[in-house]
């Protein structure tokens, strides 16, 4: 029995039957027709970036010595001073004008005219921060005083992409709202649409910090205002409970008995007809590749233009670069154009100072039919001490038009990575089915507002 047959029986066991990809695209788009909509419009994403700077009182451009925000600490409120907020209070929409702005368009496309999904997720991360700005309401803040908060993306829970449906010369609409709050954390649900079709969805977890990013800051409690918001809130609460139990850290779980058996079966398939010998312990089966030979890495230098309002490297920029190296790795592995379908558990363990270097490493850790699962690690090298720090880990799923060679581990360490990739691939399958089953919502209209 080959591994594909094995997968068909055991590995890809999910709660819902797997449909053809075309049916998934159709169902996913249909589920996004009716969503929470307050009527709030934030303009273009350039307007969003400008509004964020104005809200927090940060000067435009780069300054070697940034303006001090210490004086804003006295305006940080206590939790009991913050009124309740609904999802409509933070819901907004912003545009990426690809149809009319040719100069902007060239920043969002590959040479073959395909949209760069890394750029899309970078903009979506920025919108998530702006949505947090809209959620925070300080009734006692004097007029004209900047918001005494800093917002840091702590986690991208997951993001779905349907890349082949994006059009390079049509405007992209980004929208979202706060879907859950807990002390100083906010979960933001964000959407990407083009020509009225829902083409991507992301779940971000953002931490509220004080004005100088030295400690946590309280956020307004989220209280659902209607049946639709209550339904969305319950889904978000389930995600929060899973994160609190650390269930999403699939890479840290000990192999199950089933996975141990799978590891042994992998070993027997690669030990050769005569068994392992001291000189050569492994034999590569047909149409397969060793994991150890399929990793790509690069070193890059970020600059002040890549920073956020906290004067550290913007999380969306890091995600974009990680997506780009994983895209190249998947394409080289498969010898064909690949499309990103899913990102899960993008952690932000440490902020990256502007003067750092960034080391990116992408590993092919699992394959199934025409799918490739990658693990991408982002480390920062301090530009002064030259010490290295692990900052980000991303788990990405790509699809190809044709079947790809099977990736196989050659050591116990690689086998653990293989199992992690398998777990995240199963999560991708389950999450797509879940979003299709639970994505429908009833339109909620409100008066248009501007900020």
From TrEMBL:
<keyword id="KW-0809">Transit peptide</keyword>
<dbReference type="GO" id="GO:0003986">
    <property type="term" value="F:acetyl-CoA hydrolase activity"/>
</dbReference>
<comment type="similarity">
    <text>Belongs to the acyl coenzyme A hydrolase family.</text>
</comment>
<dbReference type="InterPro" id="IPR029069">
    <property type="entry name" value="HotDog_dom_sf"/>
</dbReference>
<feature type="domain" description="HotDog ACOT-type">
    <location>
        <begin position="292"/>
        <end position="404"/>
    </location>
</feature>
<dbReference type="GO" id="GO:0005739">
    <property type="term" value="C:mitochondrion"/>
</dbReference>
<dbReference type="InterPro" id="IPR033120">
    <property type="entry name" value="HOTDOG_ACOT"/>
</dbReference>
<keyword id="KW-0677">Repeat</keyword>
<dbReference type="GO" id="GO:0047617">
    <property type="term" value="F:fatty acyl-CoA hydrolase activity"/>
</dbReference>
<keyword id="KW-0378">Hydrolase</keyword>
<dbReference type="GO" id="GO:0006637">
    <property type="term" value="P:acyl-CoA metabolic process"/>
</dbReference>
<protein>
    <submittedName>
        <fullName>Uncharacterized protein, isoform A</fullName>
        <ecNumber>3.1.2.20</ecNumber>
    </submittedName>
</protein>
<dbReference type="GO" id="GO:0005759">
    <property type="term" value="C:mitochondrial matrix"/>
</dbReference>
């Amino acid at each position: 029995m080959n591994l594909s047959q094995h997968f068909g029986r055991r590995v890809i066991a999910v709660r819902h039957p797997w449909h053809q990809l075309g049916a998934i695209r159709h169902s996913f788009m249909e589920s996004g027709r009716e969503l929470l909509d307050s009527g709030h419009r934030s303009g273009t994403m350039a307007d969003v970036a400008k509004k964020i700077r104005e809200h927090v009182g940060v000067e435009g451009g780069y300054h070697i010595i940034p303006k001090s925000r210490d004086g804003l600490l006295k305006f940080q409120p206590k939790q009991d001073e913050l009124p309740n907020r609904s999802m409509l209070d933070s819901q907004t929409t912003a545009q990426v004008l690809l149809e009319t702005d040719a100069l902007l368009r060239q920043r969002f496309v590959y040479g073959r005219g395909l949209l760069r999904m890394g750029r899309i997720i970078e903009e979506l991360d920025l919108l998530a921060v702006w949505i947090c700005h809209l959620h925070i309401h300080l009734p006692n803040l004097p007029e004209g005083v900047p918001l005494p908060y800093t917002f840091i993306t702590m986690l991208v829970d997951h993001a779905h992409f349907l890349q082949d449906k994006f059009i390079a010369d049509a405007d992209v609409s980004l929208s979202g709202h706060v879907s859950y709050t807990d002390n100083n954390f906010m979960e933001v649900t964000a959407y990407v649409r083009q020509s009225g079709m829902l083409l991507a969805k992301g779940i971000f977890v953002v931490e509220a910090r004080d004005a100088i990013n030295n400690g946590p800051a309280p956020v307004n409690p989220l209280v659902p205002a209607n049946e639709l918001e209550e339904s969305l809130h319950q889904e978000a609460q389930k995600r929060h409970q899973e994160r609190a139990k650390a269930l999403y850290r699939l890479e840290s779980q000990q192999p199950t008995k089933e996975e141990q058996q799978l590891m042994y079966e992998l070993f027997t398939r690669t030990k050769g007809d005569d068994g392992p010998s001291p000189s050569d312990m492994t034999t590569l089966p047909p149409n397969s590749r060793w994991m150890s030979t399929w990793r790509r890495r690069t070193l890059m230098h970020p600059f002040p233009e890549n920073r956020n309002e906290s004067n550290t490297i913007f999380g969306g920029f890091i995600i974009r670069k990680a997506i780009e190296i994983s895209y190249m790795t998947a394409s080289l592995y498969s010898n064909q154009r690949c499309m990103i379908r899913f990102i899960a558990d993008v952690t932000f363990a440490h902020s990256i100072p502007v003067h750092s270097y960034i080391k990116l490493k992408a590993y092919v850790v699992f394959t199934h039919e025409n799918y490739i699962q990658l693990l991408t690690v982002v480390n920062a090298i301090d530009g002064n001490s030259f010490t290295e720090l692990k900052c980000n880990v991303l788990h990405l799923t790509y699809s190809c038009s044709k079947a790809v060679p099977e990736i196989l581990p050659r050591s116990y360490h690689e086998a653990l990575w293989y199992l992690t990739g398998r777990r995240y691939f199963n999560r991708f399958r389950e999450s797509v089915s879940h979003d299709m089953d639970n994505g429908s919502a009833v339109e909620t209209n409100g008066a248009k507002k501007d900020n």
